[in-house]
Amino acid sequence: MRRNGAHNFPAIDRVTYGKAASEAVGEEAERLAAKRVFLIVSRTLNSKTDEIEKIRRTLGDKHAATFDGIAQHTTRKQAAEVALHAKEARADLIVAVGGGSAVDLAKIVIMAMEHDIHDEAGFDAFPMGPGVSQSPFRSPRIRQIAVPSTLTGGEYNAAALVTDERQKLKQIFFHPQMMPVSIILDPALKLHTPSKLWMGSGTRSMDHGIEALCSPAGTPLADEVVLAGISTLRQGMLRTLEKPDDLEARRLCQYGSWLASFGLQARIPMGASHGIGHVLGGSFDVPHYYCTPVIMPSLLRYNKPFTEDAQKRLAAALGAPGDEAADAFAQFTRRLGLPGRLADVGIGEDKFNQISKIAINHRFVKANPRPFKDEADIVDLLRTAA
């Protein structure tokens, strides 16, 4: 039982569920008195479905413009370019419809708009390194709405992952009001998400829950909520695996992601799974949704001496009470058909030293419940995940 601490509450108005995305976006635009809505959307949803067109029709003359060329890993350069387009369109509300990259792009675009950032170098004035505790950004005058099409749960977070392509380095930028003002959950939208992305993003959401549960900075409220979320996600993902067009299973997954991401909402620091995952994605182009299944089992084993009680509760939430949490998680991700080793995602031992040199300074690696003494400790961890 945690005996002291503080619980943070996020700068978000509401989560809307049980409505079509188009209807809910229209209602939120009306509630927020928006006149010029700029859409940042998945190209697949825009070109191969009618979901985005439904939103445009609902918005009518409130629709300012649509951008659908989102990079897999959000970049500084693209954020500056899209912010310029949004300014030219006189946008007063940004709506992201898609996966984690769409949501992260919307978060950092509102800051680029606020600070009139025109290129990737424009972000240099806003350092967010391991020692920075307060956001250097001003509060944005324009906010954003998130309509997620995956399960990552990053929409419940007031930070954005942004890659500096000059250094090939993924960085975290934060301000409390980078949190979406509203999140819209439409399970029908999720029927268009490819299976591997759906399952992989679900494990990423579980990652948020696991690292909050194991964090020394966690809270009793967050512990209970994320455990419920992990259990709910597991049920929903297994049902979706058996029947991909089961709308109720998709809805269950959404609810699980919402709950499992509660630690993000409470601003509980994540651990080394996130920190190393950011390096794998930003510097080595590993898809974000594959990072958790290849790192988490080994990290759970590494952290066990410091998180034994939490891991017992985690194993039960994963449907394997009494088992090792690392084994339960690895078995679950194998059942989903996801990669389980670094070699499966193209990361060999020749890259371990470079990964460790970047990761050792990552704020989430520094927040890991079991400390890493030096780069060699991280290399040893990577070897167990090889």
UniProtKB/TrEMBL annotation:
Gene3D superfamilies: 3.40.50.1970, Dehydroquinate synthase-like - alpha domain (1.20.1090.10)
A Pfam family per the record: ADH_Fe_C
Keyword Cytoplasm (UniProt): no
Database matches in InterPro entries: ADH_Fe/GldA (IPR001670), ADH_Fe_C (IPR056798), Alcohol_dehydrogenase_Fe (IPR039697)
Domain Fe-containing alcohol dehydrogenase-like C-terminal residue range list: 205-385
Keywords: Oxidoreductase
Ranges for domain Alcohol dehydrogenase iron-type/glycerol dehydrogenase GldA: 14-187
Family under the similarity heading: Belongs to the iron-containing alcohol dehydrogenase family.
PANTHER family named in the record: ALCOHOL DEHYDROGENASE (PTHR11496), ALCOHOL DEHYDROGENASE 4 (PTHR11496:SF102)
Name of the protein described by the UniProt record: Iron-containing alcohol dehydrogenase
